[in-house]
Amino acid sequence: NVIKNIRKIITVSIIFGIVFFLLSKFIISPSYEADTTIMVSKNTDSSTISTYAKLTTSNEFSKEIIKQLDLDMTSEELASKILVEPDTGSRLINIKVTDSIPKRAADIANQTAVELTNSIGKLSNKKVLISDKAKSPKKPISPNVKKYTALGLFLGFFVGIIYVLVNDFRDTRIKSAEEIENYYEIPIIGVIPEEE
User: Fold this and answer.
1) Residue pair 38/128 in contact by the 8 Å Cβ criterion
2) Residue 1: pLDDT band with limits 50, 70, 90
3) How many CA atoms lie within 13 Å of 193's alpha carbon, on the beta-carbon side?
């Protein structure tokens, strides 16, 4: 019965694909990612660099960035946008910022690098260099329109099959002479042909 209703299944799949395409293209807010890198001077071990990276998680650190950039958000909201990780095996600290506004993502990333550099300088005499300034991203990292559309097509195909199977299960009508024989276990004497 699934084969007989393949056109319905394909139609449902296409509808889902279109809906998911429209959602990802026009409804869901895009996210942009900007990144920058700072490098700590020589003779700095990995555990110390990890400690430096964790400085960015404090409320005071976030508040300073909000103050400098005059951002309309809380410390918690800002912290959720920033990811600071030490680069394993090197003296680099990577800073990534995700935001719905490209320029703001770059500004936050660059200001985070500046504030982290200042914080490290206050704690030690280590020299810190901002090795790669963040630029305003041109393309969003999410949502991925192609992936959303493909997901919609897949879900639509799956829903279409379930719909056909459920309808078939709920349909108790007898559609052929063979079904009468199988269901009632009686022989068929004759069949009235359908009018053309």
Assistant:
1) yes
2) low
3) 2
Nearest to 52 by CA among 39, 65, 64: 39
pLDDT band at 83 (very low <50, low <70, confident <90, very high): very high
| C-beta of residue 50 within 8 angstroms of C-beta of residue 57 | no
pTM for the whole structure:
0.73
**How many Å apart are CA 113 and CA 68, to the nearest integer?**
13
Q: 61-98: string of b/e by CB count within 10 Å (b at 16+)?
A: bbebbbeebebebebeebbebbbbebeeeebbbbbbbb
Query: Please, what is the average pLDDT of the chain?
Result: 88
Residue 137 backbone phi and psi in degrees, to 5:
-65, 145
pLDDT surpassing 90 at residue 187: no
Please report how many Cα atoms fall inside a 13 Å half-sphere around the Cα of residue 84, on the Cβ side: 27
Strand partners, 32: 99
- Listed in sequence order, the residues at least 6 apart from 71 whose beta carbon sits closer than 8 Å to its beta carbon are 65, 78, 104, 108
125 or 184, greater pLDDT: 125
* Residue 126 confidence class, pLDDT cut points 50, 70, 90: confident
Largest CA distance in the chain: 103
